[in-house]
Design goal:
Elements: H1 18-32, E1 37-41, H2 43-46, H3 52-58, E2 63-67, H4 73-84, E3 92-96, H5 106-123, E4 128-132, H6 143-159, E5 165-168, H7 194-213
Parallel strand pairs: 1-2, 1-3, 3-4, 4-5
Length: 225
Amino acid sequence: MNPATIPTPVEDIHGDGRWISMHKRFLMETKEKEPDVVFIGDSLIQRLVHTEMWNNFFAPMHALNFGIGGDQIQNVLWRVENGELDHINPKVVVVLAGTNNFHCTAEQIAEGIMELVRVIREKQPDAYIVLPTLLPRGQNPNPLRDRNAEVNKLVHSKVSAVPKCETVVIDKGFIQLDGTISHHDMHDYLHLTNSGYCKAFEPVYELLTQLLTEGETEKDLTPSE
């Protein structure tokens, strides 16, 4: 049985109810706002909201951020199945999860990501689904970094047959020639710095700009007489 495909809430091991409180806050946002873009996933999505990239580029797109640190794929699945994509009509849903599924194989993670795609498509049949690639992790080469790279290959091949869904490569330029990752890009070799977010999420911004402008009437750029 693949744990990544079974929707599961996070156990409240700390006793302060933070995870379910955040989920309920996201549910309130779906009833109060009309986003064009929804970002959903783990801490790499959650922390994006505190960056210049978010303030300058994504917030003006009428974006909501439904990231929760530590979430695994099955936790995001549970949140989607329990209302986080209800009551809204986004044009694009951006999903990033999987690096926290430590005990899963690359195949299980890829299968879990595709289950997320399936459930999101059920909730939002008209939305475009964007899957940023999993980022490398760890200062030096390690098995989890290799596994994430394998997940990216598997997901890319599976998504090619899915309409209105595509991967966007965000993991380029982080591994240096000697195989290490710089703390200037990832301060703890997992989470991105402000400049790391610019490097990783610029391709996401470019794709979203393209998707949000598709179908709009071409503006008349002819100078006035």
